[in-house]
Design goal:
- The N terminus is likely disordered.
- The chain is built from 16 helices and 6 strands.
- The protein starts with 12 loop residues before the first helix and ends with a helix.
- The protein is globular and about 70 Å long.
- Helix 1 packs across helix 3 and helix 3 runs antiparallel to helix 10.
- By secondary structure, the protein is an alpha+beta fold.
- Strand 1 and strand 2 form a beta hairpin.
- The protein has 3 domains: 125 residues; 165 residues, GAF domain (Beta-Lactamase, 2-Layer Sandwich), CATH 3.30.450.40; 56 residues, Arc Repressor Mutant, subunit A (Orthogonal Bundle).
């Protein structure tokens, strides 16, 4: 006797997303419970897997349904690429298990009558993620030429890190930072490197250093919830396609295709980010390469903290209360007119304060004032 198969109604990616959006708070609570029940995890693994789960959940919450294409694979690839620095086989497997347990528990709690459809769609998502992850992580050992080429690239980047270390030892002060970033382009073979400073208390960023400076300086604003979630992981991020993570107008402004974001971090403090790209050319980045590029941010974070400590110990550098207020507003991107309105000063008086800051910080322009103050600890 043939056993019948229970039919189920297939769902679309949009329907799956809507289900997650509608129940994300309860799902988040279940995830928190299950990850804390994993007693075998080290604190570091728990933190990494927690970041993966949070990122995966936020991916569904903040995705724009109007931008979804017929095929959802590209959206998943973008997410997976952004998490490469957090992934290894162990973390990936535990992440999948916890999310699935949390989702099943949710459907039991709400007595959902299409559980089979949701679970089977989740399995299809997992299948695609596993396939894509294996493509990046597991090299084809039969292709010796490809492996040797990859090993050679990693070796070149290790040599580049050594050159960067030597450069940082020779360098000191804010005036050297633009030169250091230019050398990073050369050492790591990218066509563009841009530095964005970060203001944690307001969750804002602003462009500081990079080619086509007016474009870079025009980049300022507040990070979106999705961007904050990704960047707070303090790990290097590779986006083969930045759409969905970077605003469309910014992609067009910089002719941006593939891009790497590297946090500049020291002792859990984020100074800002570097971006590396190839001026509109698409490129690939393996997990090993991404880990090495991440070290650039760690080295620069140590460099900035080192210079900041030196400057703080210097008794000659003293800012008045008004100069400090002007400096904070400069860092926020305000022009002289707006600063005058906020502080009830004339534009002429504001210009005098800016000139005084340039003199004290030995800066040639407003951008260098902010960059210098950021690196020596006057701005954090």
């Amino acid at each position: 006797m043939t056993q019948s198969v229970h039919p189920y109604e297939e769902i679309t990616f949009e329907q799956f997303i809507l289900f997650i959006k509608n129940h994300h708070q309860q799902l988040e609570e279940n995830i928190s419970i299950y990850i804390n029940q994993e007693s075998s995890l080290s604190d570091q693994d728990r933190k990494m897997i927690g970041a993966l789960l949070d990122s995966f959940l936020q991916f569904f919450i903040y995705i724009n349904l109007e931008e979804i294409e017929d095929s959802y694979e590209n959206h998943l690839i973008n997410w997976l690429q952004s998490q490469l620095s957090l992934l290894n086989i162990k973390n990936f497997n535990i992440f999948r298990l916890i999310f699935e347990k949390a989702l099943i528990t949710l459907m039991i709690q709400i007595k959902y009558n299409r559980s089979t459809s949701i679970l089977l769609f989740l399995i299809s998502i997992y299948t695609h993620l596993i396939h894509s992850y294996n493509e990046w992580v597991n090299e084809d050992m039969s292709n010796l030429h490809s492996k040797l080429s990859q090993d050679n690239k990693v070796l070149q980047q290790l040599q580049a890190l050594d050159r960067l270390n030597k450069l940082l030892i020779r360098s000191s002060g804010a005036q050297d930072f633009a030169h250091i970033l230019k050398k990073c382009e050369e050492y790591f073979q990218f066509k563009r490197c841009v530095f964005y400073a970060y203001i944690p208390w307001s969750n804002q960023f602003y462009g500081v250093i990079g080619a086509e400076l007016p474009k870079v300086q025009s980049m300022k604003g507040q990070l979106s919830s999705r961007q904050t979630m990704i960047f707070n992981a303090q790990k290097a991020i590779f986006l083969k396609n930045p759409k969905g993570f970077v605003k469309e107008e910014h992609i067009e402004l910089f002719n941006l295709s593939s891009v790497i974001f590297v946090p500049i971090v020291y002792m859990q403090q984020v100074f800002g980010w570097l971006t590396f790209d190839q001026l509109g050319e698409e490129f690939d980045c393996s997990k090993e390469e991404l880990d090495l590029i991440e070290e650039v941010g760690n080295r620069l974070g140590l460099y900035l903290s080192r210079n900041g400590e030196k400057a703080i110990e210097t008794p000659n550098l003293h800012l008045t209360e008004r100069e400090s207020m002007i400096l904070d507003l400069l860092a926020e991107g305000y022009d002289n007119k707006k600063m005058g309105e906020l502080l009830y000063l004339s534009e002429h008086t504001v210009r005098d304060y800016v000139s005084s800051l340039m003199t004290k910080l030995k800066a040639k322009n407003r951008t260098q004032v902010v960059a210098s103050a950021f690196r020596i600890g006057l701005l954090k």
